[in-house]
Design a protein that fits this description.
7-stranded mixed beta sheet; 7 strands; Glutaredoxin
Amino acid sequence: MKRIVVTALIGLGLASPSFAALRVGATAPDFTTQATLAGKPFTFSLADALKKGPVVLYFYPAAFTPGCTVEAHEFAEATAKFKALGATVIGVSHDSIATLNKFSVLDCRNKFAVASDADQHIMKAYDAVLALNPKYANRTSYVIAPDGKILYTYTSLNPNKHVANTMAAVKKWDAAHTKG
């Protein structure tokens, strides 16, 4: 039943870019959490990831739902381009690490990490809780600069523009910070 509710909400497109509360220029809340990449759990630290370059932090309602699968596939296809720009991609949902171990292999195609936020402390800090069903994350994407400032934010339950929009924001940051 829960998957049907999430799928119905996604189909209705009940979100828009104006719903993301953390604004560009705000300091991104730091966090450390259990994550998995290619089915192998590890501890993800935002502070550590930012030392390597920008971070694309995206929240999604639930692993293995239609929209979340589409979005994961698109991020997987774009991961090499993000890495070439020095960016790290991390997805976050309420799912257990056991579920995410499978999701990271099947839908994330072993390309990028996904993290568990079962107690929703990260979702709440980033104001990414789905208002119509608070058990789930809203589909919200952030690009965070290495200095911890939010460069870009976008909220829409439709997964279609998240990868393109975050890629454009990372490219814009890279162009401004690449000496050449």
